[in-house]
């Protein structure tokens, strides 16, 4: 999977891609036309088996965190606003608006949003078909599953690959 930032808009054809219209906060699969800032994810390798491509958005209040967790498939996230620190594989990286990062899925990550501003990212990830419509986050420490979640996730769509 790869991601491209299109500051002057984009027009895409049908195919395994996601187009996110930043101004309208809308996501489209395949063919799309966006006049302003757009983000395009292209699936260039299809995994074996029955998979979905999911596009969703995660919003954190100031100081929000996502405790160490995994997902069942890979994906690329693009920060829309705020700042976020991502810790994984003994590395830590801070991202600002319109910066992206890759998560493999099985590699545990910890996310810490900006302490003083709202933070949001949009992501496109591959999800096993049996998880359609279900949450994919799995906490490394089961006790974290019981802690209050300050972040809000909203699925734009899931599309079979």
Structure characterization notes:
- This protein has 2 domains: about 1-40, no CATH class; about 50-160, Jelly Rolls, CATH 2.60.120.10.
- The protein has no helices and 16 strands.
- The protein has strands at about 1-5, 10, 15-20, 25-30, 30-35, 40, 50-60, 65-70, 75-80, 85-90, 90-95, 100-105, 110-115, 120-130, 140, 150-160.
- Strands 12-9-14-7-16 form a 5-stranded antiparallel sheet, with no helix packed on it. A 5-stranded antiparallel sheet has the order 11-10-13-8-15, with no helix packed on it.
- Strand 10 (about 85-90) and strand 11 form a beta hairpin.
By secondary-structure content and strand pairing, the structural class works out as: mainly beta
Number of distinct helices: 0
User: What is the N-to-C succession of helices and strands?
Assistant: EEEEEEEEEEEEEEEE
Morphology call: globular
Low-confidence regions: none
Strand content: over 45%
- Amino- and carboxy-terminal Cα gap: 13 Å
CATH superfamily membership of the largest domain, which one?
A: Jelly Rolls
Q: Sheet with the most strands? A: 5 strands, antiparallel
CATH top level of the largest domain? Answer: Mainly Beta
Number of domains: 2
- Helical amount: under 10%
Strand order of the largest sheet: 12-9-14-7-16
Q: Mean pLDDT across all residues, rounded?
A: 95
Task: Tell me the CATH topology of the largest domain.
Answer: Jelly Rolls
Determine Rg (CA atoms, Å). 15 Å
Number of strands: 16
CATH architecture of the largest domain: Sandwich
